[in-house]
Predict the structure.
Amino acid sequence: MLLNEIIEKRERSAGAESMTNNNLLGLLLESNLNEENNYSKSNTMTMEDVIEECKLFYFAGQATTADLLIWTMVVLSMHPSWQKRAREEVLQVIGDKKPSFDNLSHLKIMTLILYEVLRLYPPTPLIRRTRKITKLGEFTLPANLEIMIPLLFVHRDTEQLGDDANEFNPERFSEGISRSYKDQISYFPFGWGHRICIGQNFALLEAKMALTNILQHFSFELSPSYTHAPSTIITLQPERGAQIILHKL
Ligand code: HEM
């Protein structure tokens, strides 16, 4: 209902100066209008399509990145030496300035930390549906079967990663992702193939920006009331919350 109203208002102002394309909805409506004017109406998105696209972006982009940030705060609270290393790097590369696109790309330790958090706490499982009877290894799957690939377990495969697969060790990615696995890559927090996440670079940038701001201004630790209970409630969330105590620096 809310989205319906927003879209109708945007459509009414179509063509007027006020119609901006500086966000997803504006871009979708502008492309729809171009398609309709230059080609045919049959190729345009319906109101329902536009609403579904907005919902997908909101859901796919918001909860997942928030989960990544929450788990990073939890993990850096559990491993203060890595929190210290991350802060030292931020202060060395960015100082107390506002982070920019350019200097965020120089945060190597932070990148390793985020990769490792995405390995241990991947926000989403992968879901696939078989279109026809499909042979998968020794299994024959019927058509129209929904399969969930629990990345949480795939990412902790001791055969591929070694005995410390369940431990937090960002250093394992220091030679690149493919080097950290024995013979096949079993790390894909953003999916794989043609449905791979289109927002992955944006998500990492967003997470780096938020984390930089936090590390510049606060140190943090887990509250005694924190209970470690990762649980898949659509995305991987701390079931009992993430109570974190911040100390102003
Ligand atoms: C840490 C953050 C994120 C994680 C872990 C994540 C993970 C994923 C995964 C696993 C998929 C499914 C890939 C598949 O089925 O093979 C996906 C798809 C998608 N993601 Fe992300 N994502 C994140 C952030 C974002 C952001 C910030 C956006 C948008 C700004 C976004 C937009 C999308 C979209 C639109 C799809 C569907 C792509 C398609 O079906 O073609 N994601 N993401």
Notes: The pocket of protoporphyrin IX containing FE is lined by residues 56-57, 60-61, 64-65, 68, 123-124, 126, 189-191, 195-199, 202-203 (CB under 6 Å). The domain at 46-248 is CATH 1.10.630.10 (Cytochrome p450). Residues 222 and 244 are 5 Å apart (CA to CA).
